[in-house]
Amino acid sequence: MPLFFVHIPKTAGTSFRLGTEQFFKKTHIAYDYGKGSAETSDIVQNYLYRSPADFWQFGQACLRQETAMVGGHVNAGRFVSLFGVGQTLTFIRDPLQRMASEYAHFVRHYGYRGSFHDFYSRPGMHNRQSKILHGVDLEAIGFVGLTERYAESLKMLNAHFGIDISQREDNRGKKSLEAVHEISVEDEAEFKRLNKQDIALYQETVALFDSRYWLFQEGKPWAYARLVEANVQRVAGWAWWSGQGDGPVQVEIWVNCEHLDTVVAVEHRPGLCRLRPPRGGYIGFHLPVKLSPGDRVQCRVVGTEQCFPTKPRRIQKPEVK
């Protein structure tokens, strides 16, 4: 099954894309950068940009041609149901630095003459990364790297998928991927006001990456796991292993730093089946509880000590109807 690369603009995606071409060979990669783009592959043009678009036949053609990766500036929902969330990968970047880099790119390559403020103030530029990943939980994506930690990301990604993509730094306006664009205090404040979703996404990604990288260094697998519901009566979520077959994940429920109970993630979650999770979607868990507002709930994976969410969640006071 091909990898599905969600190429968020200005997140080191071009460097990664060219690295994959060296490893897989360009003939084994199908690009989707839009109908009018010269970068878009013939197989994509033939099946997806002619009426009617036939995604199923596109997927079958990719299998026949032994396509190793499908990628481009597309939303995660475009191909995730075709190739599966476990095959999906992307990189996330600090939202303000990503926007500054995209602005510089437009100035250099497209002759954009507006100010940085004009550029990021356009509604289409707000929360760009969140919009691209909309509908796919961050915790479920096969691999999520960080641009600012590209070398570590690539090391972990290669090990996870059993490949060997070399590190490159292409299509960049700064001297290195870690370089920082200088931005005024006023622009920073206004940008943060307009991009709260992206800022929250980045913070969650950093915490998730730290957790998985620790497990990677310890030689332990991570679980794709999410606490979906935590209230005064019920705790529920889902979890499945990365690369450990079809065995169910055992989950400890902790409340106020005390172990309450252990459950097994074997319940069906039909709402997740469009993502093609393992075990046919039998990856859910729940536990009836009696909790109080202010209690702190966190889950822990048995055998690895992976905690999710990365910070305990406080029980909220039930809304009065």
What general outline do the C-alpha atoms trace?
Answer: globular
**DSSP, total strands:** 13
Biggest sheet record = 5 strands, parallel
Q: Tell me the name of the CATH class of the largest domain.
A: Alpha Beta
- Spell out the helices and strands N to C: EHEHHEHEHHHEHHHEEEEEEEE
Strand order of the largest sheet: 2-3-1-4-5
CATH topology description of the largest domain: Rossmann fold
Structural classification: alpha/beta
Termini separation: 48 Å
- How large a portion of the residues is in β-strands, by DSSP E? 15-25%
Oligomer category: single chain
CATH superfamily of the largest domain, called what? P-loop containing nucleotide triphosphate hydrolases
Report helical residue fraction.
Answer: 25-40%
Walk me through the structure.
The protein has 321 residues and is an alpha/beta fold. The protein folds into two domains: 215 residues, P-loop containing nucleotide triphosphate hydrolases (Rossmann fold), CATH 3.40.50.300; 92 residues, Immunoglobulin-like (Sandwich). Helices cover 32% and strands 22% of the residues. It is built from ten helices and 13 strands. The strands form three sheets. The protein has a five-stranded parallel sheet, sandwiched between helices. A four-stranded antiparallel sheet has the order 6-7-11-10, with no helix packed on it. It has a four-stranded antiparallel sheet with strand order 9-8-12-13. A hairpin with a 2-residue loop joins strand 8 and strand 9. Helix 2 runs antiparallel to helix 3. The termini are far apart. The mean pLDDT is 93.
